[in-house]
Design a protein that fits this description.
Largest sheet: none
Number of strands: 0
Low-confidence stretches: 1-6
Shape: elongated
Strand content: under 5%
Radius of gyration: 18 Å
Order of helices and strands: HHHH
Structural class: mainly alpha
């Protein structure tokens, strides 16, 4: 099970290297419009994560002294952060795959 979890969590670098290998090792230059769209996707993800961090502090305060409830809140928080990051990576990959005129 640890092996499956290890394989499912990859760094951005690992994902980028896999995409590069899938293209036959050739990288494509991004257009200015693609770069801007990728930056917007990154900024949106950062904003979402920052919002979650603020909500985490509030939720933890509401948990009081209950360590089980606090642990559950932290686990949920981590899953939500991973969802945001995953969606951002998917969006950035979609942008990279689009040709310059299709954005």
């Amino acid at each position: 099970m640890a092996e499956a979890k290890k394989n499912s969590l990859k760094s951005s670098f690992d994902l980028a290297m896999e995409r590069l290998a899938a293209r036959g090792g050739q990288s494509r230059a991004l257009t200015g419009q693609q770069k801007q769209a990728i930056a917007e996707a990154e900024n949106k993800a950062k904003a979402g994560i920052a919002e979650l961090e603020i909500m985490l502090a509030s939720r933890l305060a509401g948990a009081g002294e209950d360590p089980e409830k606090a642990a559950q809140i932290k686990n949920n928080h981590q899953r939500e952060v991973e969802k945001i990051r995953s969606r951002a990576e998917e969006e950035k990959e979609r942008i990279r795959q689009d040709s310059a005129g299709e954005l």
